[in-house]
Automatic annotation (TrEMBL):
The keyword Transport appears for this protein: no
Protein name per its UniProtKB record: 28S rRNA (cytosine-C(5))-methyltransferase
Residues annotated as binding S-adenosyl-L-methionine: C234, A235, A236, P237, G238, N239, K240, D258, D285, D305
Family assignment from sequence similarity: Belongs to the class I-like SAM-binding methyltransferase superfamily. RsmB/NOP family.
Gene responsible for this protein: Nsun5
Length: 463
């Protein structure tokens, strides 16, 4: 049963936009990761077919306690996989409906005029072309090591380092065992698409974080100064939280919120592995957090990455509908406006980053515009990171201050980022890292191989 439960949990995480398949599988703590990855991948591949079978057989109506994602996993293994070799009481339940499910499968084959199960799969279920173009991004965890040392480690493993990229086209041309330093973010290494590091020593020891480039932008642009108090409002699965801790150099305090117990437990494990020490996790809806609580009186930075449609994720769960309904978008945007307005009510707040992995204007520019109008002149959009090529849609004057990302233009997942600062006295000053990037966008940080500055505490070298 553990296998099917773990697979269902990964599918739920994908639907929420918690991360990619590999990240969720390897963070699941399931002992047989290859078995779990294969089951999740195949269930995803057959997802539209499974939805038709479940609907035709009325399985979820007959078994109201059976979670939909678990039902998909069970029916996949029953009809297309190994025939339910495990599963306990859920196996008994699924087998009770076997005749109805097999009849529905036969009817579907007749309807589509095919004889093999594979022929039920439409071309739309093939791997996304966008996913195949996005490189493998590796963020060096500076809490444990240095960029120079990680580059040397990969070179000893047979990879060829090509230096710092000068353009997105250089990233697009990567192949084989070649890698580059990213042209925008100073602690991000770039490898060819589909490069797998989940079994690599650097990943398992927390020296590197496998994180899409666009997902690195929120913490990088928030850029809190060391010693600051920061809120990560919708924190799980924790990659952005660990990035914040690295920028803070573990000095200061991060308050991280999420409502899901399992997600928080996974996040705690990941943060500990990454060497993060200055954090407090809370199983709490951020909207219920009291901005007037003395505990948060020193919070000057907030990273807000709320639930969204996830339409920018290139490896999302396949769906029959290409886009969320207007009603769904309206509900999401209403929640996002509410949570952004709540975040801006923290009295000491100076700088906030609002981000989504959505492509829809309703969740992005429209949300920011509505809340800024509501807040009057208290906060303003910052025209940050001028070297970033894709700007916000012209939804309102100043929307070009926002950033967008896409597989086609930036070789990343689809993303949106807006930086808001308190207007006038008390406005945040960007940290030295971000200031350097904005003053000279082609030289955001020291080139690997340059003599490192003297440090009070020596980083652990990767051997």
């Amino acid at each position: 049963m553990a296998l099917y439960s773990a697979a269902a949990a990964v599918l739920e995480g994908l639907e929420r936009g918690d991360g990619g398949i590999k990240t969720l599988v390897y963070n699941s703590r399931f002992p047989h990761v290859r078995q779990l990855y294969a089951l999740v991948s195949e269930t995803l591949r057959y997802s539209p077919v499974l939805e038709k079978l479940l609907a035709g057989a009325a399985l979820l109506q007959a078994e109201k306690k059976l979670p939909p994602q678990l039902a998909k996993v069970l029916v996949y293994d029953l009809l297309f996989g190994k025939g339910l070799k495990c599963g306990g009481r859920w196996k008994v339940l699924a087998r009770r409906h076997r005749a109805r499910l097999e009849a529905e499968l036969a009817r579907l084959k007749v309807q589509q005029k095919v004889s093999r199960n594979e022929d039920l799969l439409a071309p739309a279920q093939a791997a996304s072309p966008a996913a195949s173009r996005v490189p493998r991004y590796v963020r060096v965890n500076t809490l444990k090591t240095r960029v120079d040392d990680v580059i040397d480690f990969f070179k000893r493993q047979g990879y060829s380092y090509l230096g710092k990229a000068g353009s997105v086209e250089e990233l697009r041309a990567l192949s084989g065992k070649k890698f580059l330093l990213d042209l925008h973010l100073p602690e991000l290494l770039v490898f060819p698409p589909q490069t797998d590091f989940h079994d690599n020593l650097l990943y398992t020891s927390g020296h590197i974080i496998l994180q899409d480039k666009a997902s690195c932008l929120p913490a990088f642009l928030l850029s809190p100064a060391a010693g600051s108090h920061v809120i990560d409002a919708c924190a799980a699965p924790g990659n952005k939280t660990s990035h914040l801790a690295a920028i803070l150099k573990n000095k200061g305090q991060i308050f991280a919120f999420d409502v899901d117990t399992k997600r928080l437990a996974t996040m705690n494990t990941m943060l500990m592995r990454a060497g993060v020490t200055s954090f407090q996790l809370a199983q709490q809806d951020f909207l219920t957090v009291d901005p007037g609580d003395p505990k948060y009186s020193r919070v000057t930075y907030i990273l807000l990455d709320p639930s969204c449609s996830g339409s920018g994720m290139v490896n999302r769960v396949p769906r029959e509908e290409a886009a969320p309904s207007a009603e769904r978008l309206q509900a999401l945007a209403s929640f996002q406006r509410k949570v952004l307005s709540h975040a801006l009510s923290f009295p000491a707040l100076r700088r906030l980053v609002y981000s989504t992995c959505s492509l829809h204007q309703e969740e992005n520019e429209d949300v920011v515009h509505a809340v800024l109008r509501e807040r009057g002149s208290a906060f303003r959009l910052v025209n940050t990171f001028p070297s970033w090529p894709c700007r916000g849609l012209a939804a309102f004057p100043g929307a070009e201050c926002c950033l967008r990302a896409s597989p086609a233009d930036t070789l990343t997942h689809g993303f949106f980022v807006a930086v808001l600062e308190r207007h006038g006295e008390g406005a945040a000053a960007p940290s030295s890292l971000l200031a350097a990037a904005e003053e000279n966008p082609q030289h955001e940080g020291p080139e690997p191989g340059a003599a490192p500055k003297k440090r009070k505490r020596k980083k652990q070298r990767v051997k």
